[in-house]
Write a structure and sequence with these properties.
By secondary structure, the protein is α+β, with helices and mostly antiparallel strands. The chain is built from 5 helices and 10 strands. The protein has one domain. It has helices at 12-24, 33-36, 56-60, 106-118, 171-191, and strands at residues 2-4, 43-45, 49-53, 69-79, 82-92, 95-102, 127-135, 140-147, 150-155, 169-170.
Length: 199
Amino acid sequence: MQLTYPKAPSNGVQTLRPALQAALHTNGFGVNRQFANATASKISLSEAYRGYSLSLEDLSHGKGLQDAKVGDWHYLVFADGVTIADAQLADVRGNVEFASLNHGAMAAATVGALKLAEQSAQLQGKTVELRVLFVSAIHLVAIWLHADGEDVLIPIEPTPKELAVTQFYSEAALLALLKPAADRAKQGFDADSSGLLGS
């Protein structure tokens, strides 16, 4: 399997470096010992890839991956070859700006999903673009391996286990699995009169 990446922002890495260095100098990342113990000189970044999102409305109206909205740029952050975080840049009026640093399970789960994909006979010899798909309202995060005529999705943490497990899904299979949860969530949002849900 050969991974490809979209054309990244030319100043993406320069934009991220100060934010990463500032994060390393704070004590706010104690939850992630590897991040807290990393030294700036040992930090490296993956190629940039894009996040995409589908809303509850999209799922309930039967929309699919071709309707997913393009979101932030993602970079995996490594220290001494170990994944320690997922850094994000947002497009703001034609420029990229630091958006967030996720030092939870997602970065390591992304690498785990890519290892699973590399060992797969289904993807042997194929060229795929690395993407990540979010359906935030039902807490789905999935690695999206996009190729012409075929999309493979691998749900990763923090996706709830009862929603989908870490294995390969076609677009149709995953969307069919998600639809009942999306419909339930949408009913809850639609029935809410407080205006607080989703805020």
